[in-house]
Each structure stands twice: as C-alpha cells, then as structure tokens.
Amino acid sequence: MKILVLNSGSSSQKARIYYVTDSPAVHPPRCMWEGRIEWKGDTASVSVKSAGGIAHKTEVTITSREQIVRDLLSNSWSGDNPIIASPSDIDAVGHRVVHGGPHFEDPVLITPEVRQAMASVSAFAPLHIDAELGGVRIAENLFGSVPQVAVFDTGFHRQMPLSAAIYPGPYEWFERGIRRYGFHGINHRYCAERAAQLVGDDEDPLKVVSCHLGNGCSVAAVQGMRSVDTTMGFTPLDGLMMGTRCGSIDPGILTFLMRDARMDANEIDAELNHKSGLLGISGISGDMRDILAAIQHGHKRAKLAFDIYVHRVRAAIAAMTAALGGIDVLVFTAGVGENSAEVRTAVCDGLEFLGIRLDAVINKCPMLDTDVSSVSSRVRVLVIRAEEDCAIAKECWAILHTSQPAAVCN
What pairs with residue 118 in β-bridges? Predict the structure, then answer.
C-alpha cells in the first residue's frame, strides 16, 4: 500500500508518502517522498525530498494556503523526480488530528459524521483543526474516494487517571466534556515505545518522561505504555511556554484583562495563541533558532525568553517524575528537542538532583535515537526522532486490514 500522511502543525504542514507492506510490524513503513511547508507570515518555505535524497527548496508568497498544499502534493507525481505515476496510486490518506474531543479515542475512518464531529471541537484547538479539515478536503479533491483515516493526538491520554484528567472546578465541567485531554499523544506513545527498544529493559515497565519540544511543547509521564500525566490540557494552549503560546498562566489574568483592558474573547485568544511564548517575551521571534542567535548578540529579552522556557521545562519534568514516582528515561524529541543541544544542556543542568547528567560531547552532535547521558547518570537521556507520520501510516494500515493495534516504527 502507498499511504499519504498529512500532518498539519501550528506553524508547518508536513506530507509524506509511505510504502507499507502486509507485515508492517516486521517491515516498517518506508518513506518514499516527503514535503514540508513552513508558514512564515506572508511567505512560505516549501521543501521536497525523495527517498533517493534529492531535495528541492523554494520560498513562495502566500496567496492561498490550500493551493500551496495542493502544489506540494502534486510534486509527488508531476515534479522533477516523481515517485508515483498519478494520484490514483495513493491507497489511503492518514491525518494527524490534534483534538478528538469527547468523541474519539482510537483512529477512525473519516466519514461526513466524523468530519462534523471534528469541526465541533475546532474551538478547542484553533491553530490546528481548520488546517486538518482543510487537509481532508484537499485529499478528497485530489484523490477522490480513497479511504481517509483520522489519528488523534488526544487518544493516547484518554486513559489518564481521573485525578490527573479532571480540573478542580465544578464537577459539571467534567460532565460537559471539559477535562484535560493532553496532546502530542501520537509522538509521546511512539517515543515511549522506542525508548523501551533502545534501553532494552523488558522486565519492568519503564518510567519515561517524554519532552516534545517544537513550536508546540508538552511533557508527558508514561509508564507501561500508558499516559499517567501530561502538561497540555483542555486545549494545546496549556502547560509549557511555546513558540507563540503562553502555556499555563493564572486564569485571573484573563478576567483582569476583560475588566481592565476591556478585551473580548477573540482579542484574548489572539494574544494567548499568537502573541505570547518566545515571541511575546523576546519581541523578535517564536523560533528557538532565532532566540539562540539573538542571545549570541546580547539580546536581553531573548535571553529572558530562553530562561523562562528552560525553567518551565525543568519544572514540568520534575512534576512528571513525581507523577511516576521516579524516572528511568528522559526523552527529548521534536524540532527543538532533537536539534538544540543548548536547550538540552540548560534543562538537564538543573536536574542533577534527579540523577540526570548529560555527556557534553555526545550531546553537542548526537545521532538521532541515541543516548546522550553520561556514564554517571542514573537516568538514560535519549534524543529520539519524532515519527508521528510513520506511526500514523501504521495505524492506517491497521484500521484498513486488521483490528489489531499498529506496532512501533523502528
């Protein structure tokens, strides 16, 4: 099977085409082609890479996001190095869907009813759901009646203990579906499984703290491949400081802004989601690469943004360790987690009391899916490549061919 996976993030659009055999647990999906769009204000950076390593990158002005996505996908059959003959070669399309709300836990085939249910929770994740529904629409236009599958980021966390899932407001909130859903579940689950493979400890359920640090950020506590706790909550706005999102703040700030500054819901939503985080504090960018570059030039607010970011990640790791009653493995994953040695160093430098120590040399230039902890560290520190798309491809194959859950990608 050839499966297209669409992964719509808050600042990017990823697309990959996988070849999946009839035994994906034995033969992991092979990525044949990948494309990526990074949205940057009025422009977009578009890159394409084939399995043979041939890469092409362009900068385009945004007139229609949907058209740019369509153009990206069409490159797989009409570009300089096509890997399929036509759109009809695609057997299924898998979508990362950020929020399943109260409706969905397991992956499902997308029907009109599923699309309607997805749209009903768009207010929970305003940066994501509209883009994901747009991806479903684009795939339908390009590939006709090909099966489409939704895989939910919240699904992995739906089995969290109620003590972790329920907010301490009126119990009626919970009855109305207001609860902590958690996000990045596809990748947190993958990282926990991959960590178990890398550590090779099958005797006791590993206590894994997984740090998904990208434009969106969350930390999860996982034991026995079950989510015990996580930092994101009812929406992807909760928890850590992020690229443009504030993370957890005193809710009294919101009522203060409503009363004192006469801000309405849309204005508050825009500030919390688009004007906060690294961007809001630094005043220059929500991209950690830009923050680190500015720090080198003595930019004080960039340094403050970095320090707040690190402080909150450390605090979250300690909290997740408490939820697990200990920690065996600390994982760094996603764009910042995988690529920023500076962030990993700063975070771990404050966690020696947990037995976490990095190997400074290995940490500077690690191979992905490798151990960067020192020989004296009581905790294994792993850098693991985010493989949400591979996991989604396996889930697509599973839901179309068998009732058994998909296995971890290697």
Answer: none
Q: Which of 3.40.50.720, 2.40.30.10, 1.10.1040.10, 3.30.420.40 would CATH assign to domain 2-152?
A: 3.30.420.40
Tell which residue, 147, 154, 117, has the closest CA to residue 133. 117
On the question of pLDDT at 407 being above 60, the answer is no
Of 153, 229, 238, 328, which residue is the catalytic one?
A: 153
**389 classed as catalytic:** no
Whole-angstrom Cα distance, residue 51 to residue 42?
Answer: 30
What DSSP assignment string belongs to 363-381? HHSPPSSEE-B-TT-SSEE
pLDDT tens across 86-119, in order?
A: 999 999 999 999 888 888 889 999 999 999 999 8
How far is the C-alpha of 79 from the C-alpha of 343, rounded, in Å? 38
CA 287 to CA 364: how far, in whole Å? 19
| CATH tag for 200-383 (out of 3.40.50.970, 3.30.420.40, 3.30.2350.10, 3.30.200.20) | 3.30.420.40
The confidence score (pLDDT) of residue 243 equals 95
- Asked whether the beta carbons of 184 and 153 are under 8 A apart, the reply is yes
pLDDT-based confidence at 404, cuts 50/70/90?
A: very low
Alpha carbon separation from 354 to 115, 378, 384, 409 (Å, rounded): 45, 8, 21, 30
> For residues 118 and 129, is the Cβ–Cβ distance under 8 A?
yes
